[in-house]
Amino acid sequence: MSGDFRESWQLTLVQPNQDAVKKQVAPPQTLDELYSSLGVDVGHGLLTMHPAHQQMYVVERPDQIHDGATLHVHVPKKRIFISVPPNIKHKAVVWYAGATASQIERSIAKAAGFEPAAPVELRDGEDVVVLSTSLPNDIHLEVSQAKRSLRSATPSTASIGVSARGKLLSSASCASAGSVSSKLRKERQSEKSPPRQRSPRSRSGTLPSVGGSTTPTAHQSAPEEHCVHILAGHTGSVLCLCAVGDILFTGSQDSIIMIWDLNNLQYIGNLPGHRGFVKCLHASYAKKVLCSGSQDRSIRVWSLETFSTVKTLLGHTGGVNTVLILEGTDVLVSGSEDRSIRVWDLATFEAVACLEQAHLGGIFALDRFSSLQVVSGARDRSLKVWDTSTWSVHRTLHPPHYDGVTSIAVAGKHGKFYSGSRDRSIKEWDVHSLTNTMHTLHVHGDWIQSLCMSPSDDVLFSGSKDGIVKVWDGELQCQDVLQGHKGPVTALAAVGNRLFSASHDRAVRVWRIEQYG
């Protein structure tokens, strides 16, 4: 009998403005284990009474508590800084746990000198920020008056039927979760474009554009037609996706990385730690690591076996927009708003190269299309190919886009890669000659923000600020238009016969894609 007995502690947990609750837990071995067993957020503090001095102190180690201890949860205040050009700069706005998004919005409006009921728009540089109670502490946002609040334009997680934790909505819910307006649908259905053909390069060295200036006629799926699930639970815009093995990771404006099981699309847990928006993710199954880049200027390396931080890499002086693990090596490459590309050794976690001013603007995208070449895209409209043996520029690709290059997708089987841009175009490039072989214009109604290849490399997907996902064949003919998101599409990932699309509407949609080949 004694061998079956498992020791447990009884602790009293006191939350702010709540009655004390008794908790029976196994004696914790780590502080994280204590927080988890008590159901307390890691960002909160635990206080207990010193047995000798009768004073409250912060619990920093599990051996500071004992069976029968009373623990008080300390919820820190939240603070952001706002600027309203030209007069208000870096003014603090503070709120406490329990404040609603409406109350925070009124506080921001008051601090900005607007009428208390005035709707506000928040921006992080060029990006609109979804107002939520989970905004990371001490971030700086620019504020302006809006015709309507961002909350009313972008639904909260509650408005699409989810809880604060991750939850799955079935395909029956996909239709009600939103689609583009009927006016936009009618406009897109009425658009015509001439047939596309490959055109040879002219003697002047320029390549004629393919596809004209309008969206090609294509099948337009209803929101529920191919959407089979909605993953929701983030309290801010979902900004990045990464799949590895049977796990999907999603990074968000709420500074959290959520973990999902790809077998049943259920929420597993989250990875807290970043102090700013999580803007990029990349994982290596072989190395059992996940790397995340954030607005907080840091890169975190996570173990896929323990789901804990192995190392935090510091060095960038701007937000980290893109990270890339080079398979077969111990190398991580990162691109930042500070215009630099940094190269890290994942064995020692040391920076082995820093390419200052790699571009003339913030770097948005990195990808690899050979063992010795990495391609980068940036706000300065350019694409550069780097020699990974020397980390020198091998080629700057021409012609450049007309606006920032936001995404790159490599179709290795066909020896080509694609670049998507804020100029609303997609360019096709030959991997071997590094020449532009096809160029489409105005394929979306707004910036292209993400590109992704199907697992077969035969189908290209594009996601845009217009809230639409488009499906393209090898000739850059649009095969389908996937509707349903209620905000800009920020990231795409194809796994097996499913496509995952992330959006400012705080959700990730799951689409069937086997019908596209």
TrEMBL record:
Source organism: Effrenium voratum
Presence of keyword Repeat: yes
InterPro entries with a match to the protein in the record: WD40/YVTN_repeat-like_dom_sf, WD40_PAC1, WD40_repeat_CS, WD40_repeat_dom_sf, WD40_rpt
Coiled coil: none
Annotated spans, Disordered: 179-222
Protein keywords: Repeat, WD repeat
Superkingdom of source: Eukaryota
SMART domains in alphabetical order: WD40
WD repeats: 231-270, 271-312, 313-354, 374-396, 398-439, 441-473, 482-517
Cited Pfam families: WD40
Keyword Nucleotidyltransferase: no
PANTHER family noted in UniProt: F-BOX AND WD REPEAT DOMAIN CONTAINING 7, WD40 REPEAT PROTEIN
UniProt-recorded name of the protein: Guanine nucleotide-binding protein subunit beta-like protein
